[in-house]
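Dear support,

We are seeing what looks like truncated structure output for some complexes. This example has two components. We would appreciate it if you could run it in full and send us the complete token output so we can diff it against ours.
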Amino acid sequence: MIIPETHSDLLALPLLAHVATLGTQGEPQVNPVWFAWDGQYIKLTLTRHRQKYRNLERDPHIALSIVDPENQFRYLELRGVVEQVEDDHDLAFINGLAQRYIGRDYPWHRPDEQRIILYIRPLHSSMMNAGRRTSGK
Amino acid sequence: MIIPETHSDLLALPLLAHVATLGTQGEPQVNPVWFAWDGQYIKLTLTRHRQKYRNLERDPHIALSIVDPENQFRYLELRGVVEQVEDDHDLAFINGLAQRYIGRDYPWHRPDEQRIILYIRPLHSSMMNAGRRTSGK
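Here is the complete output from our reference environment:
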């Protein structure tokens, strides 16, 4: 099983995921994002003009790192690929995320930006618990 | 200036940095680590047998993401390269890190592991403040 039961709680909480993609020269890039987990896909919000989206158009490989806020030695890393991209027409997805993370609709939307939803299929996980690392495929 | 003054405080605190490297297939990988900043280099501890070290031997490009624990919209991303690797002979570096992060010497050292210090030169930064992204070179 790719998502270990011992760490699945981290996907149910409104935590930040640090998301790594590949830049134009194939170099790693990483930054924190909101996410949702539907039991099959990790879902992220982006806009089409953002560098991270252009990165993922070139190369769909992506990795996410999520730490237990109450225990810095307990974390989950997921690696996978973007399998699907959908328009977030009515902003339902980003507003749902914002409600979960900040308790209100997303306040920074600009009408000229096209919001999209990325569907990421996890293919590999690695976990740490108190200095001990394991992995799942 | 690569490290912006507005975000340099994040390098002075014992925060986790989420570090992205490239795996054997050139795919991104990411996980949380301790770090130290000496004004010139971001310094990390590793062991020579760890996958992250093998990744960096193949490709020295690396990126780090650090979030303000009091404000999830304020973060610093650094991209750079590993410029130097040193043995941590007497464990002075990792024990200093552990003192800073958990208030005691590193408790999980195994005598059969060779601890090393990575010196990372930041070449590019990007920052976010309340939904507004900027960058520095």
